[in-house]
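Lab meeting, action items carried over

1. Structure of the two-component assembly. Owner: GW. Status: complete.
Input record:
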Amino acid sequence: MYFPLGWPKRVSLALPGQATHIRHITCDAVKILVAAVGSDFLGIWYANPLLPIAYYCRSTESLQEFGSNQLIIWKPDSRQLAVLTDAGALLLYQLDFDANGSGILMQVDPPALSLKRDSAELFIKENIPRLSLREVRCVTLDSVISNVCCISLTEMLLATESCELLRLQWSQLETIDEDLQPLAVIKLRDIPFYVQQQQQQPAKYLPPIGNTAFVASLEYSPFIGGCAAVFSDQRAAFLIADHLRFETAHMHGCWVPDVCDASVCSVNHKFRLLAYGQQSSAVAVYAIDDATAGLEYSHTLMLTENVLPGSLGAVNELKWSPDGCVLAVSWTNGGLSLWSTFGALLMSTLSWDFGLHVDLLKRNPLQLRRLEWSTEGYQLFMTCREGENNVLQLQFVKSALSMNPCMSAHSHILLQGDDCLYINQGDNLEQTYGNANCTFPSSSTARTDDCVELKQSPNMGSILTESKYWTLLQLPLNYAATNWPIRYAAIDAAGLHIAVAGRTGLAHYAMLSKKWKLFGNESQEKDFVVSGGLLWWQGFIVMGCYSLLDRTDELRCYPAECKLDNQYGHKIQVRAPVISLNTYRNQLIVLTADGIVSLFRMHRQSAYSINVECAYELDVKSICIHPACIVSLTVTNLRNELKPQQQNAEAETIVVNVCGRILMIQREDAAQQVPNTLLATCLASCVECFWLSHNLEHCAMRDCLWLYSGAHGMRVWLPILQQRSEQSGAQQRLHSFMSKRIMLSFPLKLYPLVILFDNVIVLGVENESTLYTNETNSHFALPFALMERKSQVYLHKVLRQLIKRNLGYSAWEIAQSCRSLPYFPHALELLLHEVLEEEASSKHPIPDAQLPSILDFIREFPVYLETIVQCARKTEIALWPYLFSMAGKPKELFHLCLQAEQLETAASYLIIIQNLEPSSVSKQHANMLLDIALNQRKWELAKDLIRFLKAIDPNEIDSPRCSMVLNVKIAPPQPQTQTQVNQNADVFNLVLGPIATRERSYSTTVTSNLPKDNKQQQSVPASVERSEAPSGGVGSNVASATVVRRKSTKERQQREIFNIDLILQRHARQLLQQHKLLDLGYMCAYLDFHLVSWLTQESTATTRLDNFASALQALHAELQLPSPFPAAGRDDFAVLRGTHQLTGAAGGGSSSQTSESGYFSLAAQLESPQLQPCIKEEEELQHSSLPTLKNRSSSQLSFDNFRYRRLYSLPASDDDNIDAVACYLNDKLAIKLRYLLQLFIEANCTDYALMLSILLQDAASISRIVNVVIRSESVGTCRRIEAALKQLSQCTFDNGGSMYRGFVMTLQPHIYLLEQYIQSLGEAAVNDSIDDSNELSADAASVLENDPLDGSNNNFVPKCQQLPNGNQRSSEQRLTRHASLESKSKSNGNPGNPSSTQSTPTQQLQRRGSREAPRDGCRLM
Amino acid sequence: MIEIKAKLVRADSAIYATGECVECLIEFTNKVFADNAASLENLAWASVQLHCYRKTSYSNPIADKSAELAELIGRTALDAVTQTPGEVIVATKPKILFCDLRLQPGDTKIYFFNELVPRDGPPTYRGHDIRYFYKITIATQRVKSKVQTLTLPIRVLPIPLIARPDELPVTVETNEELAPTNPFLEKREISELEISWHHLKNVTARRAPKFYRISNKRGFVGRFCLFKQAYKLGEDIVGSLDFGNCQVRCVQFSVKLQQQELPVRPQPEQSATGDEAATASLSSFDMASIASGIMPDNLHKSETSGSARNKEEPVATGKLSTIATSHQVCYATLQTQVVVPIPLHVTPTFRTDLVDVKWRLHFEFVTSTLMDFGIPNPSAGELKAPAELPVETMVWNLPVTIYAANPLQIYAPTQTYNLLIK
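Predicted assembly:
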């Protein structure tokens, strides 16, 4: 889990002021010093900060005699170095520490103040030791030394080209005098080599070492007890000694069986792995078999992504990181990659984006030769193959898990760099209240100014969020300056506290206060070294450490709350260095280097004190070679068998990861307190990391052990849930042979760092790169490495494995517990998709296909239909038949969708039907869906469907696509399985002659769908077709047939469109008949339906209104407006409503009541406190229902009204009418209605136009309509309009409270006008009534244009008018008429904009007058 | 006893951009305890309001406005000024949740409150001399008792108003603009905030790199390259440093991200422009000029040598606070990078009538003319590093602009806020 960051730094390790090629870089054992060799010099550097300490240049004579420098090795105590030359000589250098005097390269500020350093970080606290370097001796042997490696503190192995291994002491090299007498000379040709070590039989010496072969690469590991070696003839071997002394007699070798082209080797100590790089660019990794001490193949690392096979070249260099968690590999043709212990690819520069100009195949910019990990693996030194200044240093961050495996229990990604931490907190799901299903009233719709009371509490929901930013935490300077680098890092479960331990001491950080806490007493900080692990437990930092002061190993706990000081800390001595620790609930498990596992119980007494006592100790030496091989361990209550557990039961099982093998140590029986190592069972091997899911609240996957095994993927050890029926019965004994747990494994695309069990998701980090520029010669021409948080849902993988094993019940339980997750449908889709891809594309017959059971499983969930179609649309069409042969016919699924009212899903099925069925079928279904969509006002969907229908190539209608029967896989394999049958009708026609004209049959089916009145029109193209199709067929000439086809295509296309139009027209008619004008408007807008042309074509019956009043009422109901003619007895309410709406609050919304009342009370208090009783009453009024209203006296009402006026300083003369219109028609609605009005006027649909004008209370447009009607000279229309207006006035005045009362009064002159006109026309026009509509349409345009002439038509002077309510208002009426005329001429000025809402002052005045009248009446009463 | 609980709908980040909608759930529960008899509870009213407060040590000419405000508000139910120290500078219209709420024992009523964060308000900022902070105040009152309030702090990030509104249509898709408007075809309205986000994305996108040539009086030190000047919160400021072919060895350097708090005073003309001038004088040229063959030597020298500090600085630095530091010992380094993280919790660049908050990168280069160890490299034998290395330091400031990030990407979980009315 190492991830590179940024560009590699280029550093110069040459002699000061020079630029030379560096051949080899090695860090010493403690990684404090770095040695680098050029061909003629050796340089010693301090590792951090990278500063030179000393150089040694070789003389030219020495170079001539012994050759140039090639390779360095350090003596483990860092006192000596040996340099191997390319001529095979060994040069010994001595490094002496100069104790006197302070460090070197102390930076001295100049006297000038302005040139002095300012910031604290610029004063380097690190003391660079003064070292002196001298050449001790040059050792040459009889044969050429080919390789060197160090095997213990004092001894080294030399490999010579005479195929010998010489074991000698470092001290021997120093003695100059006599000849070199090695401790042992191992003649490799004499030791037995086995191919596969079986039963200690030296089965074969064969194949022996070649005559000229010698050891080319050698690495020793004490935990393995031998060396990995690669011979010059490219054979790989493993050399072991029986005792740890290397002598010919006690040694034997193992040929690595399958590797015969090895180039390099490297050993992983902790996991006991040997990696051999091969010429074939692969790396073979072998493990040590404990039983036979032989080699056991583990895995192969092979880069397959983004590379051509064989383009990488041989493996150049291999290096395990210091903690054994990653392996760096480079190739001769360039490139670097990083692999986890068991073979998961973490990073590869070959998948980096180098830009367009770089061809990685021809010339990879990263041609590396040597690799060397620096301190703690935070940097990788890389030497380029050629050129000067060839050293690159790549920076890494690593997961906190690599050093501190007890951090696996948290949901936060914590990565550590050398002086900073990267934290990614929170899950992938953003927590919100309310989820996608539950939207808040005002967040979705337009913002209202109200607070809304919610009926029930919204549950905690979650939304998927994009990856969040990394929080980067820099170590405080005071701590980092002396304790670089970070060794351990830990975060607590809540993610609020972070602890960090560097070289000595520790520091911690609180996320909330954003403050670091350091030791107040610096000497206390310097006095201990954290080792073995660091963790948080209930506000305490628990760690294993070594006290430098007392020279003892300890466990320490510091409380986070108080100052970091030893006086608050708690200390427990342990016998040996702590290697690993972990907690479970209140238990702390500690592994010490003496192979003892101790279990402590922790008890928190207060925020500051803790009590820790040892429960038991357990010797685990028997289960591991060396305690250091124990990668991680934990204590848990996970058990092999499932028993009902108490909530706070003691943890009784220990899980240990030894070199990648997971061992579970259980108690022998319940009575026994201590687990027994003899009962250790191995659960899995090749495990890098494990997690335990304990008692989780949501997910059904409880008590699981999760293992990550690199290339082998993820494994989960899952308890098998029993059906409830079985659980309840006492039959458990009967089934005791049934296994209680099952190990499922599945691949993962990313390296898991965190498993969020509740969300069934793993989080990991991936290496990404971005290219900053293309400037080829700058170093930032290389990509900039980045980290990106990635996540992967694993739910479907687990489900699939369970269903495969016939554990459907478990699968169902798990799926059920995850249903609320937003990506649950997606997971099901993935499940289906994976199985489908696999089974449908498999070349072999599948004995027991999984798809049916998977489909049955998904059918359990309501998203079934959607899942199927989503999955289908993401797979190849070739796989569809297989899918739908199992899932049911798409047609049936389509109908199911319709039943379930999932229209969008049904629409998706259409595409499938289109591909699998003849076009006629899909067309038919599309029509069906279109009908439903129109009825349900799904305009967008209808629009898409029309597009779909129009896109169907009419030619395709003929080609049957009954590929459903072609399903070879399901049908028993028939011998005559046809390969490819041309199913085209043409072929049939060609061969058999036209048996049946498909065209005809098709056209009849279509006509049957059509409404009857259109059959005539339809039959015309159909008959044309009928006549043409046989003629093409008779010719039996393909060419002529296609010609005919092409001809008919156009017609058909037209027919298609015509067909769609018919549906639309039918629907429009329906809408019009039901007075759903708004829907009609939407339909026209979305579906490109030309309303005007349709209306003009449409028969008069539909565009006519028979009962205006009821139509108006219906329209009101549809627009959710208050009824235009409220029932009698509600007069007061209506009046109140009118005044009430004055206050500006739109009527209707029940929610607004609360806020209104609030305003009122506030305002009233400001105004006049003495009015309070009245206000109270009024408030009651707001809340209470109608009956109370009736009782109220109208005088008080009007009084209220006046008060409001004053309050809101509304001028009392403001026109009520306009306000009233604005009240019940909000702006948007009014605009829509005006738009429709315009359409109806254009189409000469006077009835509807009239109704809309009334609704809009637009006197101008009414007078226009009346004029149009009059100009049309059709008595019938005039009579109807007149009747309509009369009816309306009648209704209005019958129901005194109508909101149109005032408006209708203004219409009287029009009625009069019409009456006059009808009379004047007299009997002459009676005959015209039949074809009046045609005339009307013909005249329409001219009438509208000639409007200015209206004056002549309107020159009737009203004599006397008796209003139905009996009021004498003749003068005012006259005024009204003038006003209406005036406004008419105004609107004629710009005929394109009849929707102008403003009205002339006179009109307003008139309106007010008419409005005021009833109110006056009320007051008088 | 009535318990009031308030929780933000966005539970994982109580952070909002200006112009975003704060949504909050407010729960009123009549809590029943076993010991006392349950009774019907009654609340006269409750209202919710969002306030922005300012607390400053600057002398403020319009300070008496607060008194005026207090006088105005004092007589209404909710007296916001007395709730929190500081003056209210932005207040939304109070929203009434209910009047006369009756709660049976054990009853719970939940109200939903939403309010736009004022578009022109200042961001949440905690500076040396001035603080801006936002709080949602929920106030309620029982009949004949005191007004009780519950406050929820929220963090507000500034989204810059688009300076040129004529740029707006550029970001809007213009495909369907030509079609006549049909009132039935509702176009999704693109809010100004949304456009501002797009704008922000454009502004903070990576452009051609800018190179800065660093040299002091002794010679050329190195070349610094910055890929963009405007950043969002949470991003890393990435620059590269090239010490190849240097005449003066850079031994170490540190780059600090600093926040400048400049008071806006009556005389700030020169201070505001002075900084601009400093940036302008910094030589910079972009990749395009390299491609077109202009030699990199055309670079002007940057005015950052130590001597610059000797001059009386006319530029007011204001109050400085260092947020992040990147330090490297680069003795042996030829090419390296500077990565300065911008933490998510800082306040982006903004300006109000009282304060101007800016960001800059503060460089310190420690240089040495000692290119080798003082002694020429021997043909054979040992060469030891000297004990001392004379160094000189030079500083340089480079202004950068920091913008807000999407609040949803910032993890800042909130707890529920409670108030118990006995």
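2. GW to write a short summary for the group page. Key points so far: Chain A has a mean pLDDT of 74. Residues 697 and 758 of chain A are 8 Å apart (CA to CA).
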